[in-house]
Amino acid sequence: MERQRYKTLIIEAFAVHPIVAILGPRQCGKTTLARQYAATL
Questions:
Q1: Residue 28's domain spans which residues?
Q2: Does residue 1 surpass a pLDDT of 90?
Q3: What pTM, to 2 d.p., does this model score?
């Protein structure tokens, strides 16, 4: 999975919008991705 690509998309989305939704099927890594992003703050 190209997780770095998704991290970049989240960073770009937060630059424009104050709220960003991470959507996807269960068990696809949404929470993990959100936690990894939060750890960079």
A1: 3-39
A2: no
A3: 0.77
How far, in Å, are 16, 28, 30 from residue 25 at the CA level? Answer: 25, 6, 9
Question: SS3 for the chain, per residue?
Answer: CCHHHHHHHHHHHHHHCCCCCCCCCCCCCHHHHHHHHHHCC
Q: What total number of domains does the chain contain?
A: 1
Mean pLDDT of the chain: 91
Decide if 20 contacts 13 (C-beta within 8 A). Answer: yes
pLDDT at 30 over 70: yes
Which tokens go with 40?
A: 């960079």
